[in-house]
Design goal:
three-stranded antiparallel sheet; single chain; 7 helices; mainly alpha
């Protein structure tokens, strides 16, 4: 939801009416915008409302109740179904009270990890800016408190996901096209040294370990001293003599 219109009702009181809605598309394909909800025919509005009710009532609080329920039989099946119905009735009551917890609902769009991290960074900056503008110290709040507040900000502002993606795209494009970015110019000889190279992954890592183990074995073989306890056979024609000491 991105646009709020202020209207005056029949009693003369001013109220906020949301008419513009942003609908995220699956597969990371962006979004479409419904500019005026009032333009939807009543029959279609009822259909949308029904779909929304079904999605919310069947998702909130159901993650531990629904899996495997169709495989149950007899008394176990009835107990499981009773638990689902109880949760569904609670969801309806929470809807009427305006207390429904939407965090349990499944997201319509899967967000890439890098985009999620960038969106969270932006949300945290918004929280910190709010603290600063309120003449408060950021250090007075724990990192966990700021993170929790940032999650709430992100949930209430889904457009941050789109902005985060735009930020990442812009930075990636700038890094590829600008001539000002050069690792050697920034870090000198270190940029070409072995210490900064990324560690090999998967099969390459296995080969690297095997090669290292092979080198260690060769070093041990080269360093191993020859045994000095080995008996030396007497030369031909020389008899062994034994000396006896008299006591």
């Amino acid at each position: 939801m991105t646009d709020v219109t202020v209207e005056q009702n029949e009693t003369g009181n001013v109220e906020e009416v949301i008419k513009t809605f942003v609908i995220p598309l699956k597969g990371g394909c962006g979004h479409v915008t419904l500019e005026d909800a009032d333009a939807i025919p009543l029959e279609m509005y009822r259909y949308i409302f029904q779909q929304g009710l079904e999605a919310i009532v069947n998702s909130v609080g159901m993650s531990k109740l629904l899996p495997g329920i169709t495989k149950l039989e007899g008394t176990d099946a009835e107990k499981a179904k009773d638990a689902v119905r109880k949760q569904a009735r609670a969801n309806v009551q929470d809807l009427l009270k305006g207390q429904i917890k939407l965090k349990g609902a499944r997201s319509a769009v899967k967000v890439d990890g890098a985009v999620q991290i960038e969106a969270m960074r932006m949300a945290k900056e918004m929280v910190k800016d709010l603290i600063r503008h309120s003449n408060q110290k950021i250090g007075a709040y724990k990192a966990s408190e700021i993170t929790k507040a940032a999650k709430d900000v992100l949930e209430a502002n889904p457009d941050l996901i789109k902005k985060a993606q735009a930020n990442l795209d812009e930075r990636a494009g700038a890094a590829k096209t600008t001539k000002a970015l050069d690792l050697k110019a920034m870090f000198g000889a270190k940029a070409e040294s072995e210490e900064v190279k990324a560690k090999p992954k998967g099969a390459n890592l296995k080969k690297a370990r095997e090669a290292k183990a092979g080198e260690a074995t060769k070093d041990q073989t080269r360093a191993k001293p020859k045994a000095d306890t080995q008996k030396v056979a007497p030369r031909a024609g020389v008899k062994e003599t034994h000396h006896t000491t008299a006591h």
